[in-house]
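Q: What would this chain look like folded?
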Amino acid sequence: SEYLMIKENYFCNNTIKTSKYSVVNFLPLNLFEQFQRLANAYFLILLFLQLIPQISSLAWYTTVIPLVVVLSVTAVKDAIDDLKRHQNDNQVNNRSVLLLMNGRMKEDKWMNVQVGDIIKLENNQPVTADMLLLSSSEPYSLTYVETADLDGETNLKVKQAISITSEMEDNLELLSAFDGEVKCEPPNNKLDKFAGILTFKGKNYVLDHDKLLLRGCIIRNTDWCYGLVIYTGPDTKLMQNSGKYTLKRTQIDHLMNVLVLWIFLFLGIMCFILAIGHWIWESQKGYYFQIFLPWEKYVSSSVISGTLIFWSYFIILNTMVPISLYVSIEIIRLGNSFYINWDRKMFYAPRNTPAQARTTTLNEELGQVQYVFSDKTGTLTQNVMIFSKCSINGKLYVPKNNDSRNNNNKDMIDFSYNKLADPKFSFYDKTLVEAVKEGDHWVHLFFLSLSLCHTVMSEEKLEGVLVYQAQSPDEGALVTAARNFGFVFRSRTFETITVVEMGQTRVYQLLSILDFNNVRKRMSVIVRTPEDRVMLFCKGADTIICELLHPSCYSLSDVTMEQLDDYATEGLRTLMVAYRELDDAFFQTWSKKHSEACLTLENREDRLSDVYEEIEKDLMLLGATAIEDKLQDGVPETIIMLNKTKIKMWVLTGDKQETAVNIAYSCNIFEDEMDGVFTVEGKDTEIIQKFCKEEVQTKAGGTWGLERIPEEEANGSYGLVISGYSLVGNAELQLCSLLSRNFLPKSSLLQAGVSEERRGNLKSGCVLLLQACALEGNLELELMRTACMCKGVICCRMTPLQKAQVVELVKTYKNVVTLAIGDGANDVSMIKAAHIGVGISGHEGMQAMLNSDFSFSQFQYLQRLLLVHGRWSYNRMCKFLSYFFYKNFTFTLVHFWYAFFNGFSAQTVYDTWFITCYNLVYTSLPVLGMSLFDQDVNETWSLRFPELYEPGQHNFYFNKREFMKCLLHGIYNSFVLFFIPMGTIYDSERIDGKDISDYQSFSLIVETSLIWVVTLQISLKTTYWTLISHFFIWGSLGFYFCIVVLLYSDGLCLLFPDIFEFLGVARNILLQPQMCLSIILSVVLCILPVLGYQFLKPLIWPISVDKVFERIHQFRRHPEPPRLRTKVKHPSSRRSAYAFSHKQGFGALITSGKTMKFK
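A: My prediction, written as structure tokens:
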């Protein structure tokens, strides 16, 4: 069939691509990325210089082979990573879908779907592309979808087709003849907005977001539906929010680029000095020695000779940054990645899932994280609601040990007497079951209220097997609790609710549903009982219900509120349940007012609210419930540990504000001891903006509008809550900027629209509840300045793209390492945007894991990833770099001192074989052993003292200052290692009276002294000694002497005189007293300053961790007894209120009858 859409060639196909490379562009693109690393570009330039015979003093292959190896290893690693992305893309693109073609349904692949196609989706299938809903199996073409991959919510959303297309139902003939024309907005990333017009049969129909099924949704509770494809592939809203892949480099990589430039500049200065020296020497001496040292034909003057010498020394001194440095870095990163993969303590047995390092380039940055951005649903929580406790008529029903999580199965109530009970439900207080069985009036009324007052849909495909579909998991948990205690919600129509009460089926007439909204924070149902009594049942936030109670309930209310305080301190989500029996005549009068309000065109919501308040009063309190939003194991403990490391925790969630705040308290991101909670509601932008500027300019010292956010300490304990919606404007952002500085007097809060109650609670610190757009205003800098001073930040109602934008804001304004962790497709853009992306392999698919740098199954493993593996990796990399630069500066700069004694002729101090083997053989294993196995403290101390993590956050162990120390250390040691051997053999002779002052003897003495010094230096740096460490360090030293004896042996020198030139030098020199004197003096002069510095540094220039190490040493000598942990209970100033669905409930839909199937 043909569809009157815009021509197909204007649209992309439905193929998605998350990979970077293709067969065609892999080589050039990968090489381009690799040569962005300045060291690789440096070696490439060096290679070209070595190809010029006039200046090359080393063979070209000494650079080509290592460079090719480094580029090849990196390219293979990148190719393997990208191949996994290709495989994932192919898996998605080759999924099957039913496509309407030529009047028949044909199975095709997702990637072949095009704009204008009509496709059929069935229950539990993912949506193929963004499509206009045409019809479905449900009444009025309703379709229920789950949007967890888009916004992180698992509660159901309702979509509805327009009436003109719903009439086609599943008639393939009518669907094939559909010739509508759709005009809509271009592709964008707005998940909650869509505007379009359908022209069909000469009429125009307005299309909005409720008519659109988005890719990433899953069809639920709907047998089938048909849709017209609007956006495909990269144009879909899911892919528009997914973000782009960027090449991630660590801070140390960026620092290395800067240091390479410094070394390059330093190298140029040295070569220039040596070239000037050569020019002076040739002018004053060399010119007159041409009989003995003739100039080459291409050298016409000392200036030309000096120019050539400049480049010769540039090649000789290239070991300032040896290419083996980058080979070693890749090996170290690979080895530390294997430690993560092999860590059994990060293995999750229930899913048989190990931790996985999906990239090997970011290990050390795990030890530098300062900001963690986390998703909520599926990352911090299991999104499983548990009916934990309740209070009925003032009596508490709780487990014996007051914690349902620690109860044994033996204590669990047996619900086998109830054939309709949910087998997955568990409760541990048997007195509640006994009260139900004994017919306690208040207990029965309480559970009857829970079974009637809701908008849950019930489905019973098999006899006695009930499946509840709720808009929020909270409601599902409450109805399931009532079901198990004998009050089973069985079914509903738009006029009735059927409940099985203690085995007896009773039908209640549904008279009205007073639905929930964000202002009311409650919902009510009015029913007529089988005994012809009119009853109103209400549930909602306790702060609201208390104001609606009958005066006779005040004493009961006080008791219940105290119990709710206890619930709130445990992070449970609470609500109150109440009822009222209505007079029939009163209800009839009220019903007429309600009908009139429903028909009002102006201010309908306000009129309805007023009518609701008329009947929702003088309520009789039944009790309260406490629902546990079950966290993943170890989440609160992990966040406490992260807080101790001064890592700031931000939760970026698509969920609603109330739910996000409750979880923040449960996870210890927010605490009851915080100084206050504020909801800023300022609307007069001009007044606040004027006030802000005056205050900031006079009191903040002109910090408004800085490009970088300074490091500031808050004057209290702060938390911040931001909504992704733009409800008010920019006024709140300016106001929050002032609150962060404590410059805002209480009198000004009145101008901002802050209530008297909130103004009265103002203290030194606060939690700010912002309902303003955080990302689209012109005050993002001030928002970030405020947020970065807060202990924790909650961003709710965030789209996937907004999550990434928040991360980018922090990266832009703060020079810190960020980590993002999530489990769903809606977290992919955030994971890509952060410096480090961690994927949780959970219930929401594999998208987050496949796009992550590291993955595991439980949030609690994050503390081990950072505090153990991350800290070790950072420490090892810093030790490696400082030692590697030191040993190569020491090795290379000896050439500089030697130049003043050889006429600046670019002659090397060392034998060619020593130059070749120094980094490759003699010093490679010790430094690799230290970088792979060294531990300053073991994992137990690392977790017990999270303060040890701080040096990485501030990059104490390797920075520009530490690099300069390495350079100065190398200059000093090279000076010692040249002049001590020079002084040792100057005008001296061997034991047999022969002269020892020859170039080869001097070279061997310098080489041996150098090896001894750098070996002892690394032994001083090693803090964790194992058999491998001893073997690598002392074995390499012994191996050096073996190689020297072999290479300088008579046999090799006689067989290959052009290659092995040091005939008999080892035999003649190694046992001479001058050799021993040189080694002893060199070692003493090089090592003593290091020992002195290591002893004095903690005393004169201590850092915070020095005190921690001192405590650890004390604990090792005198272990303290284990501490008895006591749970301190603090009075709660907040209420963890029941989290209704953010949008208006199913009430209007139920009473309209549109959810009922007609037979």
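Residues 114-235 form one domain.
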